[in-house]
Amino acid sequence: MTEGTTVRTWPGRPYPLGATWDGEGVNFAIFSENATAVELCLFDRADAQRESARIRMEEQTDQVWHVYLPGLWPGQHYGYRVHGPYAPEAGHRFNPNKLLIDPYAKSIAGVIEWSDAMFGYRIGDPKADLSFDTRDNAGNIPKCVVIDQAFTWGGDHLLKTSWDKTIIYEVHVKGFTARHPDVPEHMRGTYSALTTPAVIDHLLDLGVTAVELLPIHQFVRDKDLHDRGLTNYWGYNTIGFFAPDIRYATSPVRGRHVREFKTMVKTLHSAGIEVILDVVYNHTAEGNHLGPTLSFRGVDNASYYRLTPENKRYHVDYTGCGNTLNVTHPRTLQLIMDSLRYWVTEMHVDGFRFDLASALAREFHAVDRLSAFFDILHQDPILSQVKLIAEPWDIGEGGYQVGNFPVGWAEWNGKYRDTIRRYAKGDGGQVAELGYRLTGSSDLYSTSGRRPFASVNFITAHDGFTLQDLVSYNDKHNKANGEDNRDGTDDNASWNCGVEGPTDDPAIAELRERQKRNFMAILFLSQGVPMICGGDELSRTQEGNNNAYCQDNELSWFNWTLDRNQRAFLAFVKQLIAFRKRHPVLRRRRFFQGRRLRGSEVKDVSWFRPDGKEMTDEDWNAGYAKSLALRLAGDAIAETDEKGRPITDDTLLILLNAHHLPLTFTLPAHKRGVRWEWLFDTSTKLQPSREALLLKGGDRYELNARALAVLRLRE
Q1: Which of these, 96, 87, 101, lies nearest to 135 by C-alpha position?
Q2: Is 51 a catalytic residue?
Q3: Which one of the listed residues 245, 300, 391, 394 is annotated catalytic?
Q4: Most exposed among 95, 205, 339, 661, judged by the fewest C-beta atoms under 10 Å?
Q5: What is each CA distance from 152 to 12, 156, 187, 296, in whole angstroms?
Q6: Is the Cβ–Cβ distance between 467 and 522 less than 8 Å?
Q7: What is the CA radius of gyration of the chain?
Q8: pTM surpassing 0.85?
Q9: Which residues pair with 20 in a beta bridge?
């Protein structure tokens, strides 16, 4: 199509929004409540500097502008120019000189080439964003692409792994395989890399049931990072809520990466692995009032964003990223729901982790668990059946909402992370809260009708120290980020075991390995849903950087060349996961009741002091206490399997000692003849003698300093 070509147009339809190919042509539909005119721009190539055709969309139905172009095919590049008032103080920032990304684009061909033309106002003008920029940005902004959604899924379907059997592996698409020696070089760091035997085998050998991918929606490399020679590695800066990011594609030509993403999902499903997406619906990449005009701001700023009531020039910012999407507007809420449904129905993903989810629940100012966002999700026949995980906080007032999300939601349990970290490094006064965290956090979830699996338990995540760094650094070391070490939290609850950073001291190295084993053991022995930060099983380090959001390099990428200690730790993690899978007593679907159930010999859960006596209220509140034991009764689960058969298991005894000195535990005996079989101890890699494998109730077990041991009741 050459410039000036006459294009046949039909009125088209207002639904569905976006560009939809029906086999004969393409329907284009875009919402804008306050626009006075909308132009569809067609481009011959992704790198075209100007459009080959500009089509005025004459039809408007219910604030949706639409047109149908017969004879148009998938692969067509396009964008929009939207006319209307440029009145920032009234909330309007229309500028038809700026080519805009379709909010419903299914594919975006390329990335932003930063220049001052990307802004709706004149950079450097004394009036700042009240000025108006007339430069055309078409040569700098990536074009949208019409796609053919057809794909041979075969019998693929959502796996719907039950929560009690779910083990989540949080991972970055690129960082996972960028240095993997067994992945073909041209595939490393891509969606296709996750389909290779080396990657699938690692996930299956490890034993995880789901990958939780850091954001793969098309995102923007912030101009500030661009100017500093850095990048937005994590991707929490979305501009395309329907488009898989092109940077993770082996073939970025004309939307082929959409098929590549689908192939990745289908392959992971074939291996029995669910795909959960980390999604960022709380803000966009357009920043605050001084940010660029890329899409939503130019389409209808006043509808898509929350603006300050007293002066609509400014954005409400609950996210720390400059803006907050306006979920109180029905069309913005529709965008989010349409995006979620698309990823489930068309891309077959199994669930979502919502970044800064509290921001989505703010109807006016306060976080409201009865908000329209929750109501719509709960009644939706598709979305209510997938995994929904909240990051239950934002930076606004009252934003920390751990435990307060409604039924149907799981949450990243930040209190679990903080408690386990403080306990493991030897802080006093943690035992009472530790009891809740080990048993599913009933104090947070039981009163609202939720189950233990509402708690997604984690020690580390992408944001913060890796597990290796958690035991190697007291302080963050973020100078590589270019912000003079000011970024990233100072509250890490970490302990370097005696030396900051790498060390040749064998005693410190051994203690660090033991602490890593302690953390992983506690994670997989806890009720709830365990989540591993990908790479922790490989002892991955970021050299003390606890905010590597801009480090798209070897600091963040997995190192697959392991030394002896790293191989031993990987084997230990695999054994822990296998142990958890074998024992339903560690994966209860209901909270403990602290009493005998179904004729069990002992209470479903019992807590003991090191001397073998049951703990009292005074023991729980003793600030000096750093050691305890808990017995999980395998004959008191009071649950049935999928076919209604009672679930029974071994009775397990878990001994924990966070003190810096060894401690002797007296093993409990609820009757004569009790025998305890030793299973493992995090303080030793050695198998005990055969005589030590079986211990009598009442016998003493010396647990080393900073260690955990597990025993099994033998009849």
Answers
A1: 96
A2: no
A3: 391
A4: 661
A5: 28, 9, 22, 33
A6: no
A7: 28
A8: yes
A9: 27
